[in-house]
Specification:
The protein is built from 1 helix and 3 strands; from the N terminus they run βββα.
Length: 50
């Protein structure tokens, strides 16, 4: 599995590649690590990567 994220303060673009599957691309709200607390950023990631 390969997960690539291009993230800024306003938007994040994601691409997930899994073996034997077509790549999955999607966008979410931005994830700026300098303005988010660790606990909140983990919650956002869990929400989008279920």
């Amino acid at each position: 599995m390969i997960l690539v994220v291009d993230s800024g303060s306003s938007k994040s673009d994601w691409k997930l590649e899994l073996p034997d599957s077509a790549p999955i691309s999607f966008s979410t709200n931005g994830l700026n690590p300098f303005s988010l607390m660790k606990k909140k950023s983990h919650g956002l990631l869990k929400k989008y990567l279920k």
